Each structure stands twice: as structure tokens, then as C-alpha cells.
Amino acid sequence: MNAKTAKTALVLTIILLAAIPLSAGGNKKKDPERAMLEKMEAVPCGAKEKGVTGLGTVWASAGITHVNSDEKLCPQYEVLTDDMEYHIRPTDTKHPIVLPVGKEIVFKIKKDRMYLRVADGDQKMLTYAVVAEKPANSDTNAQNSLPKPDRP
Known about the structure:
By secondary structure, the chain is α+β, with helices and mostly antiparallel strands. It has a domain at about 25-40 and about 75-135. The chain is built from 2 helices and 6 strands. It has helices at about 5-20, 140-145, and strands at about 35-50, 65-80, 85-90, 105-110, 115-120, 125-135. The protein has a 6-stranded antiparallel β-barrel with strand order 1-2-3-6-5-4. A hairpin with a 7-residue loop joins strand 5 (about 115-120) and strand 6. The protein is rod-shaped and about 95 Å long.
């Protein structure tokens, strides 16, 4: 091989390497996580008041202080992954969709929102607010770290 052919081959190799982006395989989207819906609870999330309350002090003698208040309950779910436990509530409080407890879900978390869908259900992504999270094994670790009492 002469010097000119080697130089041409080297230039072509450099051009080919420059044409391939360095992040061709590294720009993959993060796969969604999987979790189980462990339980659902009805928790208080606000009060619904009917009646006139602001004028009650002015019109106290007229008896306009009566208020009918019903405590509003919202569904709160416990979502359990291998390493975290999340407590979530639906963001649409007027028409919350009831999720099947004991089923597997697929989810992503962005800021304080969890976007989820039931793994074997429809493909519609639902938005839930994350109200609490903690490590899944925090109770067992706390019990294991407590000192054992001395027995005589």
C-alpha cells in the first residue's frame, strides 16, 4: 500500500466515524416503572359547606348562622414498588376513576405527579398527585435497628 492510499483510507475512516453520532444508542427513553396497587382508603380532603356563614355575625339575631357541612372524602391509593411506597390521590376530584386494587400498574413520576395506567387494562394514562412517599422497607429496618432488651 502506498502512502497516498493509506492517507485516503484514514480520511474516509475519520469521515465515517464523524458521521455516526456518539449518542446513537444512549438517547433511549427511560422505561416506565411497575408497581402494585396495594389498597385504597377514603380520606378527608376538604369540606363542602352550604349556607350563609359570612353574614352570620352581622345577622346573628336573625338566625342566619346555620351551615350544612358534609366532609368530602377522596380515594387515596397505596402503590408499592420494590423499593418505595407511594400514597396517591386523583387530580380530578369531581370524577375520580376507581383503580383495581391488587393489579399491576405502569407509571412515571414527574415532580409531584404520577402518570399511571393499569398494566393489563386500557392504555389511557391517568394523572394522580403524590401526597406521601417513603422507602418500602423502612418499618423492618427500624425494627431491626432497635436494641434488644436485656433478659435476666
